[in-house]
Write a structure and sequence with these properties.
This protein has one domain. It has 10 helices and no strands.
């Protein structure tokens, strides 16, 4: 998906590339905590009830991946711009107009590539909706996805 970012705005790449690579570290921490606390059944039930992964995480432990990741990276004194974009990638509307585009791009990438690394028609459709909602370049996205899918 880096191809899409290169086509979109290469000046955003120093923030978006590491953010896209690191954003799901919070998911690992949440998973580990739920396993240790023997609460995996809570998240499984939430997912079976139709909640998306973010809502299921909140149901199970009161936090979501992006908040855990951003909080951890803030404590580690990582680039505040990366921390900010990660924190708002679930809700680009919640950030400033200047940062909304990058947060939406990260959201679309996360929607495209599922936590297990798969890209599905459904995940691409969800990402397309985000791309359209935030006025991002759909044609460039489609070309990047086509390239990624051609490599598999």
């Amino acid at each position: 998906m880096i191809n899409w970012l290169l086509r979109e705005e290469s000046k955003s790449l120093p923030i978006l590339a590491p953010a896209a690579f690191l954003v799901d570290i919070g998911r690992v921490i949440i998973s580990k905590t739920l396993i240790e606390d023997e609460k995996t059944d809570i998240i499984q039930q939430a997912l079976l009830a139709g909640e998306d992964i973010t809502a299921a995480e909140k149901t199970a432990c009161g936090a979501q991946t992006t908040d855990v990741t951003a909080t951890l990276f803030h404590k580690w004194n990582l680039d505040p711009n990366i921390v900010h974009i990660i924190r708002y990638s679930d809700d680009p509307e919640g950030t400033t107009e200047d940062d909304r585009r990058m947060a939406a791009q990260l959201k679309a990438i996360r929607e495209t590539v599922l936590p297990n690394g798969e890209i599905t028609e459904e995940s691409m459709e969800v990402a397309r909706e985000t791309i359209e909602e935030f006025g991002l370049n759909l044609k460039s996205y489609e070309k990047a996805v086509e390239r990624v899918m051609g490599e598999n």
